[in-house]
């Protein structure tokens, strides 16, 4: 029994780390500087500590057993997207949240937006590269 109590935090950390790694892979944070920090504790205290320590522009957090977090994530990322509608990873995160909320139609709309943004950005990069190589 005592050994199980000691192993519980380690097990929590392993599970949380694996879930967070999966989230980061699905969020497609390509070309974004990001840092993964896992901390148990009171969310408001840990957010404040992390914000002070890393001087982050954005902090995304998860929590086990708390309701409404997916809806809150959608709302916060939509707010972020109001400032930059061309931020494809934001649309990916919202799509993932909608999937988990069992709203596949909304998820598909968001995935499609992210795809179109990436296609447009890729076309712009190719065009810029061609112009750079073949001065007109």
Order of helices and strands: HHHHH
CATH homologous superfamily of the largest domain - what is it?
Answer: Tetratricopeptide repeat domain
Which percent band covers the strand fraction?
under 5%
Q: What's the helix count?
A: 5
The major sheet is characterized as:
none
The Rg value, from CA coordinates, equals 19 Å
Number of domains: 2
Based on DSSP secondary structure assignment, what is the total number of beta strands?
A: 0
Task: Describe the protein.
- There is one protein chain.
- This protein has helices spanning 2-27, 43-54, 69-83, 88-100, 104-133.
- The chain is an all-alpha fold.
- The model has no long low-confidence stretch (mean pLDDT 80).
Give the SSE map.
Layout lengths: L1 H26 L15 H12 L14 H15 L4 H13 L3 H30 L3
Helix pairs in contact: 3-4, 4-5
Key phrases:
mainly alpha, single chain, Serine Threonine Protein Phosphatase 5, Tetratricopeptide repeat, 5 helices, about 140 residues, 2 domains, about 70% helix
Summarize the structure.
With 136 residues, the chain is mostly helical. The chain has helices at 2-27, 43-54, 69-83, 88-100, 104-133. It folds into 2 domains: 1-65, no CATH class; 67-136, Alpha Horseshoe (Serine Threonine Protein Phosphatase 5, Tetratricopeptide repeat).
